[in-house]
Structures are given as C-alpha cells and as structure tokens.
Recover the amino acids of this structure.
C-alpha cells in the first residue's frame, strides 16, 4: 500500500482572492501563517467574496517577508506593508464580529476601483481572536483567521479525479480552495478519517465541507457555470447541501512540508 502524503499546500492571504501554492508553511493558533489574514469589506464592514463578485478570483496575491503585493487585470500593482498601523475597525464574517486594522486609503482606492464597490481592505492582527464554532471546536481557545469557518480544509487528489470524471471535464483544485491536499488514497477516503497527523501537528476532521457557488467559478477566467455543484448534488447531497472535502481543527503548532507522510490515527 502506498504511503499517504501531503502533496500540496495552499494559503489564501486575501479572502476570496487567488491562493498561493507553497512547499512549506508555518502553523500557529489561527491555522496556516498568513492564511485569510486580509479581507475586502463593504462600507458596512461586511466581508466581500466571489459569491457576489466572481472577478475577485482574478486578484493575484504574493507575499514576501515584509510586503503584500496585489495585481489584477487593468490595475497598477499595489504593494502594502504586512502589518498596518491603521485605525482599528469592526468587521463581519458571517455572524462573527472581529476587530481588524484598516489598510489605509491607497488600499481602499485600489480595491474599490477594481471591484467597483465602495470597499476597504482590512487585516486581522494576532491579538484579534475569532473563535471556531463551539459545536465543532476541540477547545474553547480554538481560533481562525477570516476563513469561512475552520482553520483548515483538506481534500484528496483521488476525490478530485473522481469528481472530474463524473463531470466529464478536468477540474482544478483551486475551485475548492483547500489548504491540505492528500495523495495516494481512495476517492473520498478522507470522509472516513477522524484524526490524522502530519509532521508534529494533529488534525481533527470535524465536519464535511458544504460547498457553494464559488466552486462553479473558473478561477482563471472568473466565469460562472453550473458544475461541479450539479454533479455533486447527484451523489454528495445531504440536508439540502452538497459536500466535498473535510474541515479540520488542528492541535499544536509547527511547520508543514509537502511530501510529509500522513498518519491516520483514528477513523470515524
């Protein structure tokens, strides 16, 4: 039997914009370092996403040790310091209220001009705590960044391959926005795992991931279709939702590296 491996690692520094493929990533209390630490918000402080603005998929994001770089079609690239000294502000992610730091007027103008919506760009500092839903958290201190609801999302290569076959066209993993991609397992085998270990970090697979319209957006062209939600609904539906991938809560900190073997500690 082939060893199960961590085959890909992704972070999404700006919520709902393009992700970054990495060979290694540090993991802290909020999850992968710099994952969903920035976010575009409307004039009321509520998060913006590809659900209503598909062209957010075309915003390229790059990080170095000190700066965040943004680029998008028709826009002059923007360079911003990681940690702003901006004004604290209140922002909303679903039902969660968080204290963030505003990234300033230059960032606001750039994101507003591209999205054609009065917007601001904000950053979640380390001392601003957003808790994981207590229904799924392991400890009352579990937290995350601006991600939808969990600090990690895991999907296997085999599951994507099976879904692509059913849809009748190759689907890219970036439609599904995972952090952890696993190789050398059976399709949907991740559904059977309860606790796994990657390196020194333990992951509890606490909930199947319900999928939304973002999965139907071609991430290279920002075009919206009907797949793969239509096909997923035919065999992965429950409680009026369709599921693909597993949401995870982690225990411990350290680093993750592509090529590390996965240990299955407990099955459901």
């Amino acid at each position: 039997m082939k060893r199960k491996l961590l085959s890909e690692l992704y972070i999404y520094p700006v919520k709902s914009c393009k992700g970054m493929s990495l060979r290694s990533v540090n993991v802290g209390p909020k999850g992968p370092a710099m994952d969903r630490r920035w976010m575009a918000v409307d004039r009321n402080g509520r998060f913006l996403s590809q659900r209503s603005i598909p062209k957010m998929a075309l915003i390229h994001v790059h990080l170095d040790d000190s700066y965040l770089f943004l680029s998008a079609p028709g826009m002059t690239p923007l360079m911003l310091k990681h940690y702003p000294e901006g004004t604290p502000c209140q922002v909303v992610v679903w039902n969660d209220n968080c204290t963030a730091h505003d990234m300033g007027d230059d960032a606001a103008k750039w994101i507003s001009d591209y999205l054609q919506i009065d917007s601001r760009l904000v950053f979640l500092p380390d001392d601003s705590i957003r808790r994981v839903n207590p229904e799924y958290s392991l400890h009352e201190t579990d937290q995350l960044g601006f991600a939808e609801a969990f600090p990690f999302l895991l999907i296997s290569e085999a599951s994507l391959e099976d879904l692509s076959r059913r849809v009748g066209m190759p689907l890219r993993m970036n439609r599904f926005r995972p952090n952890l991609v696993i190789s050398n397992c059976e399709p949907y085998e991740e559904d059977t795992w309860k606790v796994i270990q990657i390196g020194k970090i333990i992951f509890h697979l606490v909930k199947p991931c319900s999928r939304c319209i973002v999965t139907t957006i071609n991430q290279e062209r920002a075009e919206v279709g009907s797949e793969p939600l239509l096909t997923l609904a035919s065999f992965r539906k429950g409680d009026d939702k369709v599921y693909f991938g597993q949401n995870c809560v982690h225990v411990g900190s350290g680093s993750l590296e592509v090529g590390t073997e996965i240990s299955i500690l407990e099955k459901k």
